[in-house]
Amino acid sequence: MNLYDQLGALESSLDTLLQTAAATARSSAESTEAAVPPGAASPSEPPALDDGRGPADSTAPAEPPALNEAPTLVVSRPERDAVEMTIAGKTVKLSPEGVSELIEELSNVRASMSVEQPTGIAPGWRFAATKNPVMATQKYANGDRLLIMRHSGHGWVPFSFSPNMVIELYAMLTKK
What we know:
38% helix; 176 residues
């Protein structure tokens, strides 16, 4: 099963889980309202017992908390060359190639989102820098330059520069 199939299966499972939880919550609320007279315990709950501390807590949720909570993503690293991702009880194990494919797909999706990345670097931001990365360049007919750098974590990262930006980049890199 390739990464797309694995992610699709996770997404499908998550959608099904959320739809089932929502439908269960709706039907449970509708049947409870229709079948239970005011002040009586619902059929699925045991009657409140008087333990001498006063009336039972009426603010307690009628459903298990798991139905009300959104599924969470759990990422673990069971071995050096593998990552496991679990959503709603479904686990996918990714190899280094699968991780690279996921990073590339997420990067492409993130770049197309309307909310842009912050323009400044956040305090405490963590990163893995690649010293002396492998690079490739290409010149376009309009004078723009493509610079592709290989980051050890992100893979090949392309940047396109206008002629003016190439000059600014050169000035920044040679500034003393």
